[in-house]
Specification:
The protein is globular, with a radius of gyration of 16 Å. The chain contains 6 helices and no strands. Helix 5 crosses helix 6.
């Protein structure tokens, strides 16, 4: 999850042995840690190349919203009541930000795809309209349900393409992304 954040201190001050101060995601990783949106995967590592799971993303967005109080339970059969992600998934579900795969499944530990990431961010922002803009080289492989969200995410600078002007919609989004 990339954010526009101010510059931070060099690697020696980051506390993450795997976050190089010159990496494109360094400021965002430190911002997320310093603002309680994400923690490291250990006391000294962030694991930027590790896939972001659907539960992780729900938790980040829930924390970004200030962790509002929730009540009730979600309709997913693969979420555990009382788990570290439970309130986040419930909040995101109740607010129309996340949906499952059907059959009552949320996919808690499934890596989030780039098109799912764009769609969830778009929904979290109120599902605004978006101009199509320039097509990605793999535009035709973006699911129809994600098309507007991908256009919105690209035009607002939340998600950019990859080498060769590809979006890689089915590719896994990493913690750095």
């Amino acid at each position: 999850l990339s954010l526009s954040v101010p510059a931070f201190a060099a690697e020696g001050d980051s506390g993450f042995s795997d976050v190089d101060a010159d990496s494109w995601y360094a400021d965002a990783a430190l911002y997320c840690r310093d603002n309680g949106l994400m923690s490291g995967t250990s006391d000294t590592t962030f694991s930027p190349d590790t896939p972001m799971t659907r539960a992780m993303l729900a938790a980040v967005l829930y924390r970004l919203e200030g962790s509002p109080a929730v009540s009730g339970s979600d309709a997913f059969t693969d979420t555990a009541e009382g788990a570290w992600y439970a309130d986040a998934v419930l909040w995101a579900s109740q607010n129309g930000i996340v949906s499952g795969y059907g059959g009552g499944l949320f996919g808690t530990d499934d890596p989030i795809t780039r098109e799912q990431l764009a769609t969830i961010l778009w929904r979290c922002s109120g599902s605004p309209s978006a101009d199509a803009g320039n097509d990605f080289a793999d535009e035709d492989s973006i699911a129809s349900w994600a098309s507007t969200a991908v256009d919105w995410a690209r035009s607002n600078g939340y998600i950019s393409g990859m080498e060769g002007n590809r979006f890689a919609p089915k590719g896994q989004a990493t913690r750095a992304q």
